[in-house]
Design goal:
Layout lengths: L1 H42 L2 H10 L3 E5 L1 H8 L8 E3 L5 H4 L3 H7 L3 E5 L12 H19 L4 E5 L6 H6 L6 H15 L2 E3 L21 H11 L5
Parallel strand pairs: 1-2, 1-3, 3-4, 4-5
Helix pairs in contact: 1-9, 6-8
Pfam families: Lipase_GDSL_2
Organism: Paenibacillus lactis
Keywords: Signal
Amino acid sequence: MRTKITLTILMGSIVLALAACGNQSADQSAVQPESQAQGREGAASGSTVKVYQQTFENSVFLGDSITEGLSFHDVLDEKNVLAGAGKTAEFALEDIEELVKRNPKQVFIQLGSDDILWPTDDPLTYAMNNYAKLIGMIRDKLPEVQITLLTVTPVTEEAIKKEPRYNTIPDFNQALKNLAGNEQVGFVDLAPIFKDAADMYDSDGIHFKPEFYARMLDLLKEHVK
């Protein structure tokens, strides 16, 4: 009986942790037509999108629903994005086989928004341990691939009021920087994108309109090998 109760509590915690990102994914679907229209008019023209797709044709972006926006908003092809709502560094370990099939020259890892919410005593340490495992597995299966870690994207003040755990984003990003140094992989701080850019956020204050993805790729194109 005690085992059944423990499992029930654990499954309930997991559901609560994933609910935030899952709900945001639903919100994205609701605003898709408007956001995509804004992307075509304000973020990037069709010719610019084509340039992005050519620049990152040998790259794969591995991540959560934030990363998924690259293909959701048609900024990159789906073959270049391996992401989904609720993904954590631990869950991303399950994507290694698919990543190997795609055989990229470069992998950009953008996780953490869900790791922060994971129901464990020390989410940061737990996430970094799984990040290290993820890097190790990628290197083992794709020894020639270039790996670059991206910082966790900030959220609005309103989003922090609703979920105070987002206050730990700076701590996560410092830990990611340290991990990148220890593992000798690339690291890119996305902070420059967010200067005077409050209008890039969707209504939830967590996810983004197409403008963000255009700015992100403009920043990252210098890091493509």
